[in-house]
User: What shape does this take?
Amino acid sequence: MKVGIIGTGYVGLATGVSLCLKGNEVRFYDKDINKIKSLRESKTPFFDPELQEALVLINSKRRAFFHENLEEFMSEVEVVFISISTTIKGDFTINPLEFEELVRKIVKLAKRKIIIVFKSTITPDLYLSLENLLENSNLLSAVNPEFLREGTALKDAMSPWRIVVGTSSTESKLVMEDLYKDFRCPKVFTDPVSAIIIKYASNSFLGVKISFINEIANLCEDIGGNIADISTGIGLDPRIGRDFLRAGIGFGGPCLPKDLRIFSSFAESNGISLETIKAALRVNDVQYLKVVDKLKKHLLTLTGKYVGVFGLSFKESTDDLRNSLTIPLISKIQEAGALVKAHDFLALDKAKELLANVACSDDVFFVASESDAIVIATDWQQYRNLDWQKVLKVMKGNLVIDGRNLLNPTHMRKLGFIYEAIGKAA
Ligand code: NAD
Assistant: This one.
């Protein structure tokens, strides 16, 4: 099939590359010409080694085409995926303008019957208003929400846990069934509103799980109990499951916080208050402050103290800093008077643009040197295997606040650290 992808971010690129690897001819368009130019040279605009390798392969086989011009892009495609960023307004509704403008342009440029597939996460009202723009054209539409995880984007796109397609058109359904016929996973074909709610409700449920375990962790800090054991004990029940039950500083990133707020605001505009989601957000909004409280508890004052922050990206295996909790966390530590140095494995270039007065380095020992405390802010597994003895040697103090519950408390204390995690009595 001749497939078009508009928006070559994490979702668009992974979707397009996976469809190309399955034998389709795929055309990519992005408003950012520099992205298109680097993709043509097989360079991904973000870190993803597997995607990078696959891009080299599909470029060498000449099955992928990268367009700077939308008209040229439109000339060949049968199905167009829209996977552009979802930007939000102050009231947590989606800014519809980019979507509307794009759909109008597609309608104008389409020379044959094509199907517009919305992969970007958008609300039901926005989808229905965009579908209205197709009236009086012979274009069809569908919703195909994306569930991939950054860090394993291509793997998830190639072998998804499920594919969800929402459409009211039998013709679109048949085309989407055909497009996804080689993907071996459960497939849910439904109406557009249900497909959209599956996406928002899934992300909301993950957010609720994280905030739930964080509340239990906070309780354990007062009354005792080991949150790691408790999470294991809860998660072994298959009705609950183990994932997303690790206590820590909360959820960040480009999707969960945004999607929960948009979903809640969308429901509110329809007269419904989604109380569990609101509660999950309330818990999450303050959870990262636990780290600042713990620093103050041990150091008494942060004025003039040095804090080394380990990890900047919103989670491991990505250089994505969008809505990373490490950014407000660093601001709060600085506001309390401390000087901050920060380490990350991938996100340093992006971080330098965002962080003021932070000495960023890819050398953990430089970041640790002369520091009164270390804060682990991202769950990079590499921090588990660090030479912590050497870290302690270069530090001025011996305090570690593990905001991701990565390390073994007994081992850390044996080495001589004052070690605190989230939800484990100190
Ligand atoms: P991204 O910011 O990485 O990429 C979006 C791309 O779209 C950018 O390259 C941007 O230049 C391009 N773009 C924006 N407006 C455009 C326009 N009008 N015309 C052409 N190109 C345009 O975004 P992403 O993380 O890939 O997310 C895309 C969508 O998928 C969002 O709705 C997001 O919520 C959703 N989503 C993201 C993830 C994730 O893990 N990142 C997972 C599932 C769903």
